[in-house]
Design brief:
This protein is mainly alpha-helical. The protein is 53% helix and 0% strand.
């Protein structure tokens, strides 16, 4: 490709009026309960059962774990 053709292409690209995507800004929603990230190891089979239970109950693994811990603490306090 000749240098002149390349310059023509560059000028054509600069002159085209392509709409630019503008990023949408969404405000952060403050959560009612303060949360922190916590990681731990668990048995592989237990994790599989947890995932299956979450799917069956149409909920998240996080919700199941939080509920289980809350129930345990309520019973044992």
């Amino acid at each position: 490709m000749e240098k002149q053709n390349l310059n023509e292409l560059i000028n054509k690209a600069k002159s085209s009026n392509q709409s630019k995507t503008i990023q949408k800004i969404v405000p952060v929603i403050k959560k009612e309960i303060e949360e922190i990230q916590f990681s731990f190891y668990m048995e592989k089979e237990l994790l599989k059962k947890l995932k299956l239970k979450a799917i069956q109950e149409d909920t998240s693994m996080k919700q199941l774990v939080n509920s289980a811990i809350n129930n345990y603490l309520a019973i044992n306090n």
